[in-house]
Design goal:
Layout (H helix, E strand, L loop, with lengths): L2 H13 L2 H7 L4 H15 L4 E3 L3 E4 L1 H27 L5 E7 L8 H10 L3 E7 L2 H9 L5 E5 L8 E7 L2 E7 L12 H4 L4 E4 L4 H11 L9 E3 L2 H9 L4 E5 L11 E10 L4 E6 L6 H13 L2 H11 L1
Parallel strand pairs: 3-4, 3-5, 8-9, 8-10
Antiparallel strand pairs: 1-2, 5-12, 6-12, 7-10, 7-11
Helix pairs in contact: 1-2, 1-4, 2-3
Length: 305
Amino acid sequence: MDIKQLKFLVALDETRHFGQAAARCHVTQPTLSMRLRNLEEELGLELVQRGQRFEGFTEPGQRILAWARSLLAAEDGLQAEAAACRGQLVGSLRLGLVPLASFDPMRLVRAFSAQHPGLRFQLFALSSEQILENLARNQIDLGLSYLERLKPEHFTTLELAETRMGLLHDRRHFHFDQPSLGWEALGALPLGLLSTGMHFRQSIDHGFRSLGLVVRPLLETDAVHQLLQAVSAGLCCAIVPLDGGLAESAEHLALTPIDDAHTLAPLGLIIRRQTPRSALAEACFEEAQRLLSEPIRKSIDAFDQ
């Protein structure tokens, strides 16, 4: 058994396709299949359900997969720890992000990258539930998500901001004279919203329900870029975070604050408590704590500008 076989196994789980897993690992599909069969023979277990195409993992395969992830995380941690001992921070930081976060993750990415040029970054758009699940499975290193339903014995958090809401609209199609809008005024507008079930959407629905209002959006999506496309086309207005930077994505977009509108939980940076967790994740979490302390926060804001 070698580490490459475990990487092949994890790649197959993440792609659910033999050809795509082989391409990700920079080998041919026959090579990947042969190496996985060698692993099965060595362990004396059937790990993969095979047919015309990939059909999933057997029950033993799921259990071995969990160990494979732990061993790969330990290898990443070893490499990161060795680099840290040399005074370096290198490797790939996997960061899970909720859509429409009020905190721009590029603030941290730029700051980390400037101080540690050897770092690479993988960003994943995930729901709050997916972020917690992926953190627990060690599939991501840090999560930028809402701090609700967290078990403190499993996760450490760094609160970042309360997410206030505004109405994003295209000046060419919609115009509002008021400096802010109430929930009642939004009900008469064509709205584009994130899909039902996502935390930001749940907070929007709560805002309407608290006043006895029912929202019937014109458009629903789980993709932020589709919301921006719909707003820019004049199809609808969208409820988004005030501090998410979306209004700056095009000169014809504007953002009007919504009275008493905020998410049900604050946003925060999350890291798992359980071992194994990579030294890279720990170092970046500690770095974030330092970067977001009040004296240094001003320098980050100035750097953003």
